[in-house]
Design goal:
Oligomer: single chain
Shape: globular
Radius of gyration: 16 Å
Structural class: alpha+beta
CATH superfamily: Class I glutamine amidotransferase (GATase) domain
């Protein structure tokens, strides 16, 4: 119902391709009615691919929360932090809320953890073009940060010297991974980004690292 990212289509194709190459099945939906206790049982992880605004009603929220409590996985991509404002549980799950972003531009990312499945293939300093989010209502003290952005390398950063861009954590019985990257169509044909996304999906699904 809110802003619709054009890159969602490219993202779906990329995730389906990752599934075929890595032996997991991918379903997609834009219908919150799929969020029932029974239906969610068949999935190892749920991906919010640049969702925006309120996407679930009260019953669907309860089903999703129960899914995580029973050990389900969550992957949030880009605008997943621009989603479900006013739902404190979701804010803690995803780790922060979107605040603002400057114009798309190149920036320097620093890989904080080179051992994790979603970042072990990345260069220590990663220069790339994307839409760089500023965050509010952050829970970075309770997540494991993987990537930070150097605000001196671009214009419009508002989180200061410590500005995380990707993280993961165990939460409420399940697992959650988030990356702020992935605004552009080009992201979904970039091997470095796709390896990053795949690692997050595998982590959320409790696959071996």
């Amino acid at each position: 119902m809110g802003y619709h990212h054009e890159s969602i289509a490219a993202g779906i194709k990329a995730i389906e391709k990752l599934g075929k190459e890595n032996h997991f099945i991918v379903d997609t939906t834009t219908d919150g009615a799929a969020f029932t206790e029974q239906n969610l049982k068949q999935y190892k992880a749920v991906i919010f691919l640049s969702t925006t605004g309120t996407v679930l009603n009260a019953e669907q929220k309860q089903a999703f929360q129960q899914y995580i409590e029973y050990g389900g996985g969550f992957v949030g991509v880009h605008a997943a932090t621009d989603t479900e404002y006013g739902w404190p549980w979701y804010n803690r799950l995803v780790g922060a809320y979107f605040k603002s972003h400057p114009a798309q531009q190149n920036a320097e990312l620093n890989i904080v953890d080179k051992k994790f499945i979603a970042t072990k293939h990345l260069p220590s300093t990663w220069n790339r073009w994307d839409e760089w989010y500023n965050f509010k209502d952050t829970h970075w003290d309770s997540v494991h940060v993987l990537i930070t952005i150097n605000e001196k390398s671009y214009k419009g950063g508002e989180n200061g010297d410590y500005h995380p861009m990707s993280w993961y954590h165990s939460f409420d019985g399940g697992r959650a991974f988030y990356t702020a990257l992935g605004h552009t169509d080009a992201s979904y044909s970039d091997p470095l980004f796709l390896g990053h996304l795949l690692g997050g999906i595998l982590y959320a699904m409790h696959q071996k690292q």
